[in-house]
Write a structure and sequence with these properties.
Length: about 375
């Protein structure tokens, strides 16, 4: 983990453990978030994202470990501080207040002047297409509308630390992009420290300065979207980001060479170094669909013959399912639309795009 200068840390989780009824939900979580950083927590449902956010907000106490905000240990079960706003996954709106009152309440409590409140709320209501609903009660709103109110309430507070738990999950696609842009604009304008939870890898890539990928209560990797995508720490990370998923194929390291489907593949210097001195072993070879190059004729060395089993035409590109010898299939993305179903094509992989994972530890051999 990269150590960050203490003065630059807004938020820190140190050896945090959370168990419910003796069942560990968060196991040893360490994370440092910089001031003004947009940090995304990404992971499958049930991996502990909401729990982590509730711990940061002070709504729950860790079973072990510390949560430090601006260098100070958060008291266990301390009430969420004025410095923190949170958008809850289940909205948590006040049922007896109108949309406008829901948005206004926290600002009033924090003694924001009336003119300023009105100005902020008018803009937020308009951005989130809620102006026409401002006098309704939450019970009179759809799920997507309630979620927009919850998001608006968090945005209005402009607190130094802003926690968002899947805030766009129930919002229609067009409005979701608009809301996403608005979150980004506000972050740029106000420099808030943001912790944003999502299970959607595209949303994570679009928003995060850095992404912390979680699985089963553990952080798998914390890095920039670019490094997460191109240099994943392990198989889980490689497979969780990217559509269609990265191809994972069985390869062998034999007598200092990489073998795939009976032909040698070149190793990058980094891979050669990581494997130097190691014995023969099976490796998992990862190659993203856009890096599988499809040719009509054998091209380059080595080229693997494959049958075109399926073509999905997305207009902008085609997604191919290709069958290699035996029962190995892989996916490729191509913009070359003269590929025909049930014909033979020839595949090459650029060595710099090949990832290799240790078969037992599932770690990227270069990490
Ligand atoms: P995520 O937000 O990533 O979907 P959560 O943090 O909500 O995951 O939950 C992680 C795990 O902890 C789940 O298995 C969930 O059932 C369990 N869990 C969450 N809250 C409680 C609770 N209050 N009591 C018992 N188990 C809980
Ligand atoms: Mg959740």
């Amino acid at each position: 983990m990269i150590e960050i200068d203490t003065n630059e840390i807004a938020l820190e989780l140190k050896d945090v453990v959370k168990t419910y009824h003796k069942v560990p939900v968060i196991t040893q979580l360490n994370l440092q978030i910089k001031k003004g950083e947009f940090m995304v927590l990404l992971g499958p449902s049930g991996c502990g994202k909401s729990t982590t956010l509730r711990l940061i907000a002070g709504l729950e106490a860790p079973t072990a470990g510390e949560i430090r905000i601006a260098g100070t240990n958060r008291q266990s079960h301390a009430k969420a501080s004025d410095d923190i706003a949170m958008v809850f996954q289940d909205y948590a709106l006040y049922p007896n207040m109108t949309v406008y009152q829901n948005l206004d309440y926290a600002l009033k409590v924090h003694k924001v002047a009336k003119a300023e409140r009105q100005q902020r709320l008018t803009k937020i209501l308009a951005t989130l297409n809620l102006t026409a609903y401002q006098d309704r009660l939450p019970g009179q709103l759809s799920g997507g509308q309630k979620q927009r109110v919850a998001l608006g309430r968090g945005l209005a507070k402009k607190s130094p630390i802003f926690l968002l738990d899947e805030p766009l999950s129930n919002i229609d696609v067009q409005l979701r992009e608009k809301a996403r842009d608005e979150i980004q604009n506000l972050h740029q304008a106000n420099g808030q420290t943001i912790v944003y939870v999502t299970h959607d890898h595209l949303e994570a890539m679009a928003l995060g300065d850095r992404i912390a990928i979680m699985n089963a209560g553990k952080i798998q990797m914390v890095d920039t979207p670019d490094n997460i995508y191109n240099h994943p720490a392990n198989l889980f990370v490689a497979q969780f980001v990217g559509t269609p998923q990265i191809n994972i194929l069985a390869a062998q390291y034999q007598q200092g060479k990489l073998q795939f489907q009976g032909q040698p593949l070149p190793l990058t210097p980094g891979q050669a170094q990581a494997l130097a001195g190691q014995g023969d072993q099976g490796l998992d070879l990862g190659i993203r669909p856009e890096h599988v190059l499809v040719h009509g004729q054998p091209a380059g060395q080595p080229a693997y013959p494959a049958q075109v089993a399926q073509i999905i035409d997305y207009g902008r590109y085609q997604q191919l399912t290709l069958a290699l010898n035996g029962d190995t299939t892989l996916k490729a993305i191509t913009t070359n639309n003269d590929v025909t179903k049930d014909t033979t094509v020839y595949l090459t992989f650029a060595p710099k795009h090949i990832l290799l994972f240790d078969h037992s530890s599932q770690k990227n051999i270069e990490k």
